[in-house]
Structure formats: C-alpha cells, structure tokens
Fold these 3 entries.
Entry 1:
Amino acid sequence: MIGVIDYGAGNITSVSRALSHLGRAHRVSGKPEELASSTHLIFPGVGAAGSAMATIRETGLADLIGDFVSSGRPTLGICLGCQIVLAASEEDDTPGLDLFPGIVKRFPGDMKTQARPLKIPHMGWNRVVFTRPSPLFAGIYPAGEFYFVHSYYPLPAEEDLVLGRTEYGISFCSVLGRGNLLAVQFHPEKSGPAGLKLLDNFCRWDGKDAL
Amino acid sequence: MLSKRIIPCLDVREGRLTKGIGFKNNQDIGDPVAAACQYYQGGADEIVFYDITASAEKRGILIDVVKRVAERIFIPLSVGGGIRSLEDMRTVIGAGAEKVSINTEAVLNPALVETGARAFGSQCLVLGMDVKRTGRTIETPSGYEVVIHGGRTCTGRDALAWAKEAADRGAGEICLNSIDADGTREGYDLELTWMISSRVSIPVIASGGAGRPEHLASVLTEGGADAALVASLFHYKSHTISGLKNFLHERGIPVRLL
C-alpha cells in the first residue's frame, strides 16, 4: 500500500488518480497512524511553504516523514514536497524538514531570455536533464519534459544531491535525492506519459537498488 | 527552456461538443471525453473545457465530463463558463480541474479574482478576457475594450488596464480572446497579444483566429504569447497536434514533442 500525505495544501486528488490509473493500491490520509505502515510514501503539495510546514508539524506528519525516511522505505516529495526536504525556504522564511542540506530560493525577478523578461511563476512544460542515475528515470533517461508550476526552486548544498536540472533563466535543480528519499519539483501526475512512467518507477522501487 | 503550450479548447454544451471533430472512422464524434483523450494521446499540453451555457443547474453535466476526463488524462485541465462563485470553483476543482477560468464574473465582481486566488492559489485562476478593437479613446487608451457576456456587452473598460488589474489581484494567467479575430481563421491579433503579453507579468494564452500553422508560429514569437488556444484548426481540418508541433519545432519554437 502506497501512502499519500494529504495535509490540506492544494489539490492532491490528481496524484491519487494517477496512481489508480497505474493500478497502484494507495491510501490518501493526513493522519500519521494511517500512513505509518505504508510500503512507499508520497508527499505532494502546492501552496505556501509557511502554512504547509505549520500543518505538517502540528499534525505529526513531520515526524512521520522523518521516521519513514529513516526506515529505508521509498519516499517521494512532489513540488512543495520537494522543497520542504531542505533546511529552509525563503518563502515565508520557513524552516524545512532539514532531511538534506540546502535552501529554497525565489527565482530572481530580473531573469531574461532573448531580451524578454521571464515570467514568474515558472509554469508549463520544461525539460529535465537527468545528471545522475536514479531508479526513477528508468525508461525516461537521459531527459524528459515535465509540467512545472512554482516560483521557488530547491538549491541543495551538496552537488551530489542534484539528480536532474532544468533551465529557466538560470539552471536549477529539478530532481534531488539520495538513498531512499527522492524529490521532484515538477508534477509527474500532470506530466503525461513521462510523468506516469516516473511515478510507476517509484512504485516499483524498493528504496535500494536500481530497477 | 520553457515550451510554448498548445492547448485544444473543447466547447461543450450539455455534455456534447458543439463543434464536430474530424476524426476518421470514429464513432465518438461529439463526445468530449473521447475528444480529450484523443488530444492527450496526440500531445496536447493542456486541455480547456468551455461551456457557455453552464449555469448552476446545468453544471452537473459538465462536472461529470470533467470527472471522467480527469481519470483518463494526465495533463492540466482547465474549465470555464459560468463560474460565478468560490463554490463553483471548488466544484470544478474537486472534479479534477487544475484551473478555473473566469471572465464575465471577474469584470462584474473583481474581488472574486482575489478570493479565488487566495483560496486555491494563483496557479488555479485563469482570467478569460474577450477583447474588441476600438481605436484609442479616452476610456480605452490601449485601443482595445473588454467585452463580456460572450461578446454581447461592451464594458467601456480598457483591456490593458484590466489585464494589469487582474494580474495584481492574483490571476495566474490570462486567456486573451480577440473578438475581432475569433472565427476568421485569418490569424491571431498579434498587436493585441504583444501589447498584453509584454506588459503583464503572468503568462498569456492567445485565442481567436487560428487558421493555419503559421498563425501559431507568429503569435508565439511576434505576439509574445506563452501558449496558444486552438479550436477549429483541430476540429475541422486535418491538422494534428503532433504535426503542428513539428512545424513549430522546425522553426525553432520550443514545444514539447512526444
């Protein structure tokens, strides 16, 4: 059973629908006790970092995520869930779960491409170039296009945490992780066949070996 | 680099497509669920459902369509037509839409843009704008006026001023439809699209006038549009999404290829 964390931050039913489409049994819940026995854990999320982190701490989900990662089971953060694994975010000046060293920064306001200003949020389909091998990328490697919606981006403090990069005015880390904890800044559940493949790879993964 | 999005728009009325789609040997002509799935398979970047007849009583049919589509396709879905309240937004988002588009109601009640953006996030909220060329006047210094009620009612509001206001109020995107170009198949209004796109900080989806692949190339370059809404180009003609994207790709325009 795959656990999907629902902490009230945005619409996570699309993740649930994608898992159903893949034929993966899952449970959506905001209660740590209902998720603790899961084989895999996904924490999606859109919305503001400050209120999301407050909810995660109050409800005991922060401890659940920490324990789950320590247990070695496969864990996947999506979008905001990718940002909160780092130590802190510039958004609302929020401390994160600090599972990896690094911070979350806002895209600079003056980015340009071909002399035209780049819009924020970064919204739409963009290319992810996989910079390190990961079980998530089986069948998609070396690159794919995925759907993004975000104004802040993760900046891990250690280069070997960076698994994929995307260009939007700057080159930023769009996939990060180590061991059994992986996180993607884009929305695989909204990224067509490539996104479904990535989610399916995660569901088939044991948290250790390559697929 | 961010890809330019190609977005098929499905006009739905009481659960059926109002424009026929030129699928060959397809029994499901007129079924919006089948059409959406076909577009998804073909490489659409997003799909818009627009129901001009939607009202509180009749929305159930559209909601059912959205639910069935959301189970089958895994790209963003956007729903517009007759959205008048937070409750309406909640219903379509709950059915599986990522985005809701508000048009007439946003003009009549601009606070709805703010409350909608606060409740669901700006990324959920698309401002639909129907715009008519007026020439520069004191009321409309940009030369374009906002019209509502599907183009039947002139508001006297300047299009550029409204676009900026809506962006400030929290709209996450603008879907900009030229009433003059709509249905002509002679190309998007490039001047209008560039004027809005270059002056607001949020993405602009160009709408109205696509008749040939060249029109999309123009609006995505000269027009500065971030995305193009396409209806009849796919509905009536033999153009496919992948064919269109290859055309754009060959001209150096970044698009997502399957």
Entry 2:
Amino acid sequence: MLRKFLHHTNLKQEDQCSKLCCTKIEGFGVTIGKTEIFKDVNLHIHCGELTALIGPNGAGKSTLLKSILGEVNHTGKLNYFDAKGEHTGNPVIGYVPQYLNFDLSTPTSVMDLFMSCLTNRPAWFCSSKKLRARVLESLKRVKAEHLIDRRIGALSGGELQRVLLALALDPVPDLLLLDEPVSGVDQNGLELFYEIVSDLRESNDLAIILISHDLRLVAKHADRVVLLNKTVVCNGSPEVVFNDEETRKVFGMLVTPVDKGAK
Amino acid sequence: MLATIYDLLNTLLPYQWMDHNFMKNAFLAVLMVTPLFGLLGTMVVSNRMAFFSDSLGHGAFTGIAIGVLLGGVQPLLSIVLFSVVFAMIITYIKSKSSASTDTIIGVFSSTAIAVGLMMMSYGGGFGKFSSYLIGDLLSISPMELATLLAVFLLVVVVWMLMFNKLLIISINTSLAASRGINTLLIEMIFAALLAVVVAISIQWVGLLIINSMLVLPAAAARNITNNVKQYHVISVVFALFSGITGLIASYYCNTATGATVVLVSAILFFITLVLKSRMAR
C-alpha cells in the first residue's frame, strides 16, 4: 500500500526517484535505414509496477524493447537507479521474446537451455544436482517444473512462454521485458501468464514492461499503460489511457473495457 | 614416443591392416580428426551452417593456391591464415548486411574457388593440385600428427569454454543477446575454429567431401536424440565409428579413405532417419 502511495507521488515529480529503484528511458529514437520507427520516447519505469505497452501494428513496440535491450541502435539514454537512488549503470534485463524462432527439431531440453544460460560448464557435461534444484525452483515459479526434461521443440506455445519467463527471471532482473505473442497461445495460457506476471511484480519488486495485444487483460492487471504510435501518445493509469481521445482514435471500437459508452 | 604408440597399436590391434606404418598414422589421425568433426558438426548443423562450412573448404582451396604461389612446399600456414580470414569476413558481412546469408556465402564461396582455380591453373599446372580435391589420409606424416594433436587440444579447450554461449546463439540470437552474450564475437570465434579445422584437414580429407564429414555425423545424431548430452555423445561416436570403419574398409577395398568414411556416415544417417520416423509413430 505504502509502495503504491509512493509511486503516485513519484509520478508527479518525474525527476526524483527517492527510495525506489527505477529505470528512465530518455529521448529514445530508432531509425532503421531511412525509416523512422519511433522518436522522442521518454518513459519512467518504477519497480513493482507493471507497465503495459500498447499500440497498433508497426507502432514500434517490439523495436522499443529491442532498443532497451541494446540490440537495436538507438538515440537517447537508459538510466537505471537502484533503491538508494544511486546511478548503477546498466540494469540486469530479463527478456521474453514475442516469438522464439528456433529450429523445432533441435535436440535441446529445457534443462539444457537453463544450463547453457546459467553456467559456464558445458551443457554436454553432467549437470550438478545443485543446478538442477535451482532450475526446478525457477520453473516452479511459472508452474512448469514438470517440463524440465522435455525437448524445447516439443513444448506448446504457452508452455514455452512460461519456460522463457522462468529463464528471464534467473538471475532476478531489475527490469523485465515481455513481448506478448500475437498467436500460438490459447486464452487460458494467456490468463495464466498474466496472473504469474502479476504475482511476480508484487513478490519480487520487479519493474515490468509488457507489450500487450489483449486490452481486457491490460485493464485488469496493468498499473500503467503507455500508448505508443511512433512516439508516446498517451501515458497513465489504465482508466486515463483507455478514456483518452487519442487511444480511441487508434483502437476505435476495441476500447470498451473501461468506457462501455464509447462510440 | 611415436614408437611406443606404434607398439601399443600392434598389441591392441594385431590385424593385417595395422601392419603398415602409414595405416597406423592414418588410424591415429582418424582418432583425432573425426571426434573434432563430430563435436563441431553439432553446432554447424544446429546453426544451419552447412553451406558456410562448405564454403570454408573453398576458402582453404584458395589458401593452398596462394601458399604455393608464395613458394611453400607445404602451404599449411597460408591455408590456415587465409581460411580464418575468409571465415571471419563472411561472418562479419553476414551480420552487417541485410542480404540473405546463403547469397553472401555463395558469392564468397564462388569467388574463392574462382581465384583459387585461376592461380592453380596459371601456366597449365593444375594436375599437381588435384590431390587436394580428393585428399589422402594415408599420406599423413608423424610431424603432421603432432600438429593435429595441437589443433585437437585447442578445439577441445575452446569448445569447453564457449559451448554454452554457442548453444544459446544456435537457439535464438535475440535470446543470446538478452543474456549478455556478444553474439558476433562468439560466432567469429566459432567460424575461425571451424576454418582452422577445415584448413588443417583438407589435405587429408579433400575439398569435395570435407563438409560431409562435418555435417553427416551430427545430422545423423540429431535424428535420434532429445538433449544436448545425447546429441554430443552420439555425434562423436558416429564420427569415430565411421572414421575407423571407413579406414579399414578403404584398406581392403582399395578405395579413397575419405570417401569411404563419408559413405559409412551417410549409411548411418539413413538408418537414423528411418529410426526417427519409426519413433515418431
């Protein structure tokens, strides 16, 4: 409760970040070739907050996440401040891609995937008991411990997404970036995913940026919504953003969860 | 040192094919080269680099030509250097350019082979190079065995150090980048390592089949395995098995060793392919 209260005061004075860790995205812009993907993106992400990034196709949502990851060249700065308000350089970022494009026939198990990400001991060696326990622990967080010895190509869309989320959470990141898949995950899987993410935010004090296509679930779970369309069009609580004139222009009839009387 | 090993081989394998020293040398070479191919092959197949590794053979071919033009009798150094530079240039351009990977590799590969052929055919003396096309495993000398041992150790050490990163890259480069892996650097190192192995072994295995030795054991292992451990072990076992079987068979059938080895691997591949479809049912 106290944390929520602090958040709101922080929202008013954008420059200060007292007693809470936060990530500031300042003046981000990406131009690939001659195409400007987005520009002048300024965001202030707090820990323990789930920020949903919405926008039409081609608005630059995925590219924004990739530029935060440093995978795409961009202008602007990313600043991370820890809980003491000290500038600590680059945050540890966890990333769950929208769609993991990999060879489905790859002979790699979930355990192999974790082992290769977590240790330097080659994945073709025997794994230590300690590591296996740690991986099981991670998978338990996303209700996927039964998948540890499955081949990653044999997982369903929802299962794979949960495994990737578990992977992104070990080691615990400062900032979690989630790119929600457009297809391949059923409604139940999606609900479960949102519930897990929502719980994580509270239990681990994570800052989460989630690209979402399901506005109903966004309205239910997000603390803050950012409408991106070449730049930040609208930024605020779900109520504010969904009632905004600009959002309605972009999404038309789709925006009904908050304001049922919309045209 | 070598005499002890020869004696050991005589005691362990008292067969007729083991009588000659050249067979002993070839046997030792097979014991070192094929596991390397088995190991590196796993990631060549997983990273869909079969075409890339094929082009390395072509790069090595140009290296041979340059080495001979520069006047070396054993142009090993020039082959290795040229192959490594060639591999790294392709990897770099592939990562920076938006053109498709196979086009870029195709362009480099054809250029290298064209330049190599031009140099070798200059003055009409191509005949003396034709051995590089087929290779001759039986011609390996004790000195070359020592070089091979050094390369073997180098590859195993590098493989221990960077395998995990390579595995994540093979699954997805974005995922690798998000785990803080410098994908270009790792790909460069892998490409250079492949280039060294291909360059060293091309004179014994031959340009025409070197890629099959690299790709087939791993491709066969991939058909019937579910995790990285099995994949590695089976790939190396297949590579060793086809190497030794091929060597012995080539002795009795009086055929080119490299080609015989490849044929054994190919048979293994088709067997696993059938097993795979059986397992899927």
Entry 3:
Amino acid sequence: MLIFLLKMKMSSFCVALFSVLASSFLVVASYAQDVDPIRIGLMTVKTGPLATGGIQMEQGLDIYLRSVSYTIAGRPVEMIVADTGGSPAVARTKAQELVERDGVDAIIGPLAAFEALAINSYIAQVEVPTLSIAAAEDMTQRTPNPYFIRASSSSAQASHPMGHYAAVDREFRRAITIADDIAYGQEMVAGFQRVFEENGGRVIAKLWPPLNVAEYSAYIAQIQNADVVYMAFAGINGLRFIRQYAEFGLQGEIPLLGGMTSADESILRNMGDEALGVISSSFYSSELPWPANVDFVSRMREVYNVDPGYYAVSSYLEAMVLHAAIDAVGGDTEDKAALMNALRAVELEDSPRGYVRFDEHGNVVGNIYIFEVHQKDGRLVNTPIKTYENVSQFWSYNPEEFLSQPVYSRDYPPAIYLGQ
Amino acid sequence: MTLYIILTINSITMGGLLFLLSAGFSLIFGLMRIPNLTHGALFMLGAYFGVTFLRMGVNFWVAVIFAGIVLAIIGGAIERLLLRRLAGQELAQVLVTLGLAFIIADACLLIWTGDPIPLSAPESLRGVERFFGIVFPRYRLAVVVIALIVAVGLWFLLERTRLGAMIRAGVDDPEMARVTGIPVSRLFTIVFALGAALAGVGGVLSGPILSVYPGLDAEMLPLALIIVILGGAGSLPGALLGSFVIGFIYNFGQAFFPDLAYVVLFLPMLLMLVLRPQGLFGKHPS
C-alpha cells in the first residue's frame, strides 16, 4: 500500500531526526554509581497497529526490574527503550544504535518476526545476546542464531497441543482455519493442522485474509459445514475477527479456537460478550493460579491498571531469564560467550508461566495451557482448562526428523482434505 | 448457492459503507482537483470522536451527528488555514494533506491510545436477520439504508439547490464559474467541511463493523482512492456506483481469488486509469 510505504519512510525519517533529541528521555532509570551499570535495550513497538502489545512489553519489563529495584548481581540496571514502529528497517537502525551508541549488554525484543529477521545477522555479528518474543520457527530450528534465545514460544509450540485438544479431547472432525497471511499465522495453522489430522481430524478449508484486511465478512461467509474454526491472528485482528464472528451469529454455533495472540489479555480488555467461550492455547494467561503469577498480576494491576497478557509476560520472562544468567556468571556481562551459555542453561522453577528451561536450539520448554474465555468480576479472563506439561517446539516428534522436514508454511504440511 | 447469496449481501453492505467513505472524497477531488490524503485520517478521527461521545453517554445517532459537526469544523479550518495559503499549488496541497494525515494519526494514538476500541451498535439494531436460512447482521443492513439516504440527500443538495448548482459549476469549470461571480474559494471551504463531515459520519457508522484502531486510516484511504478513480472525480453517481462495484470486487475477489486479493482490487483501477482516465462518470481526467 502506497500510504503504508510512505508512512514507513516518514517514520524512519522522524526517527533519524529525533533520535538525538529523544535519547535523553529514553533512559528510564539510570543510577549514578561507581559500578558500571548493566544496560538492557528493549526493542519494542510504541506506534502503529502493533503498539498495544509493544507498550505491554515495556510495562512487563519495567515491572520485573522494579521488583529487583533495578539492580542485578549488585550492578544497577538501565533500561533503554527503542521504538521500532513495527518496521524492519527501523528495527535494524535501532539495534545498531542500542549496540554502538548505548553499549547495551543484551537486547530484549523485538516484537515481530520480520523485525527479528532484520536484525538477525547483525546481532550474530556484534555478538549481543538477544532475548526475543518473535515466534518465527526457524530462528530456533533450521537456522538458529547462537545469540538468540526465546522464553515465550515458537509459532507452532502452542498450536500443536491445540490440534491434539481439538481432535482428541473435543473430538472435532471438520475444521476450518483462518489466519493472518504472514509467517506467524501460517506456522501456527500448520502446527494445528498437523496434529489435528494425525489424530483423526480433517482441515476442510484454510482461509488467509491479508494482515491489514479491512473486514472479515467475505471470509466468514465461507465458514460452512465445519464443526470447529481455528483462528491464528496477531495484534488486534483477533478482536476484529471475533466481533464479526459473533455479529454473523456464529458464536455458540461453531466453537472458535485460537492461537496465542488471538484472544490474549491485551485485546480481551476491550471486548465484550462476543469473546465468551473462545478457546485458545498459549503458555500464559493472567489467570494462572500460582503465587509467582498472582504476584506479577497484582503488581501489573497496581502500577499500570491492566491484566498482563502474552506481550507483558514475555518481556517479564526474558528479564527473569537474563537475571538468572547474569547471576550465574557472577555479574560479568563482558564475556558474551559465557553469558550466552549461561542463558541457555537457565532453569526457572517458579516463573509466572510455571517451570521453564531451554532446548539446545535456544527455544523454551515449558507448559502450554488451553484457556477458555470466561467472565469474572466484571471483566473477561482466560481461564485455564487443560495443561500440556513441558512442551517443546518439536511437540512429540523426534527433533532430528522434525528438522529434516521443510519449515511450516501455507503449504506444508500439505492439506489433503480440502473441500471434503 | 448460500455462499453466493451471502457474498452478494456482504458486497452491498460494504458498498454502503464505502459510499459514506468516498462521497466526500469525491466531492473534494472534483472541486479542488486534489486527492485529499487526510480523508482516511478524518474518517478515523470521526470514529474516535464517536467513541468519546458514546462514552459520555450520548445516544448513538446523536454521536454520529456530533462527530459530523466536529469534523466539519476541523475540515473547514484545514481548508481555510492551510490549503487556502497554498492556492494553485496542487502538489504542495497534496503534501500538506499527507502530512496532516500523519499528524492526526499520531494525535489519535496519543489521545485514544493504541488499543482497538469496538463501538456498540444501537440496541435496536443488534442481532441478526434470518431469511431463507441465511443469517445476516441487522446493523449492516441498516448501514446500506443510511448510505442510500445520504446519497439521496447529497443528490438533492447538488441537483436541486443553489449551493449545489454553484458546486457543480465549480467542478465543471472553476475559471468560468469565478468569472460569473460564483465565490469559488468559499465553495472550497464549504465542500471541504462537507467532505470532512461525511468522513466523520462514515467513521462512526463503520465503528460497530470495523472497530477503531490505529491504522484504520491507512486501510481506508486507498479504498476511497480506488472508488473515486473508478467512478470519476466529483461525480456522486460515480462514487455510488464505484462503491458498490468495489464492494462486489472486494468480497467475491477475496472469496474466490484469496491469493490475489489486492490484485483484484487494484487492477480495475489501473485499467480505468489507462483506458478511461476520467472514470465512469467523470468529466475531466483525475
């Protein structure tokens, strides 16, 4: 879209223009002490359509750093926030600024896969540990980056269990999938379809609306003869789709399942009854009952007056992991290789999402939950209804075999039951 | 068969929505000879004002009218204070409208935050109509009716009033209109305010269907452009027909050629520009 391109150009221009000016404001907390501070660069999105999640990322990180009084391993911590505007080109520039001007010890972020891909080779080249929430499968599979780890989830890590839940627990047989036509949506659908079909289900239609489609009625019209719908949306598209799904009278008629960000807390708080009954799979919701999470949620509510969701908990988790690793190397962040090894060796017994460790590719292993949207105390929440324990990005498959197959995409694995 | 019927109804309702978006754009384009790139932002701004009025407890229809009035004032001010100073410099005017679009979008982000905000349809229009086993949201049908009422109202304004006659004269030949004593520059202000008001009204009315969120402006503007290029700048029937044509192309294109969704949408525009640059009903090349 012309206007979109212009807008991107414009925003990178503005970024260049104001970066010098803005840098003085970006340092949220700095402590004048003798000890050299640990600098953490947060790459997030604070403008444009992805801003809702991006702002939650900053809030989650801030809440964690407050809980340790902005001090890790006896060193003060500086959080330096960079707004990428959701643009790969800006992300690349911002990464360079964080590394070369601000001298960050580690990067948390960026938010979107296309941003992570844009800085992928750069972070490997300058050897800066990067803890991202970008879900792109191959970042931790066929082409892993030694300086990249992910404590949230790969795209299909949470959709494999949903395929199992739909086919085995609920005995759905005929599914229609609808997802943003980007790698994130495609990979989630592929994971769902693979496990769903291996357990007796059939995906009879796959719908791919463009990421910035104006509305979904043309797609909803095609939802026929199915006994379940699986959606995989990013940003605010889940909200828009769920509303129109209800508007066309399908809520309660055909159960609606969703991926990690289709109905997470960042959009749920702007929704009403139309979201009731939506079932989604993810590694986190603010309703998880253990103390580590109850504590996190109450602090988020106290400071920012929101329930944390996918984005807030992700940066909170990345900070927890980073903290544990820096402790493990005795506060020395100069030896990047040692820090990276420590990061991959981190095990958290007690995080808001439960037990967490990493596989050899730098991706998290942890619980995946199935949630259902319920009403509670006058607001909508994702209530956990089932737990899949210690799920890796490879589900129940042999990692070597998994990696020898093509990466998940629109056409892999092939959908052989379309139209049946 | 059901699919075709649903898609047809969808196309018609979308056409109604698109007409509310593009009517004002077409008038401004026709009279002032510039594509007003702020139009998408004004549409979004109207929707956000609708949100604010609704939060104040105002009735939905009153919120629609209030948003229209506020946007008319803003539109009038933009023309009077900015575009007027650049009279005759069309490129500069287009760039100013583009810059304004960014400014408005960022201001919206600041005021209404990045959260998507759904608007609720008025109580009486919630729920669905069922006919022959097909389910259809009542509010969308209402939008078509409103769009047709607006179309008739605009037609009456343009064809049956003195103001309308002056606007038509201005669209056809601004120089000659000026010579015959028509205050063309005042018309500019009026038409810009009217166009902005229509965008604002369209924005609020679209709220229950599209929700309001940052980026809505950039999604709607190209659609307005396509419609006006198809229908012809400054032509009301052109905007009406163009809206429904695009509504059909959009819905059927996405259903049957999902991979080519944007090709299907933009190809007619390209063909029109090459074969008939003035559009279906336009009088001069856009």
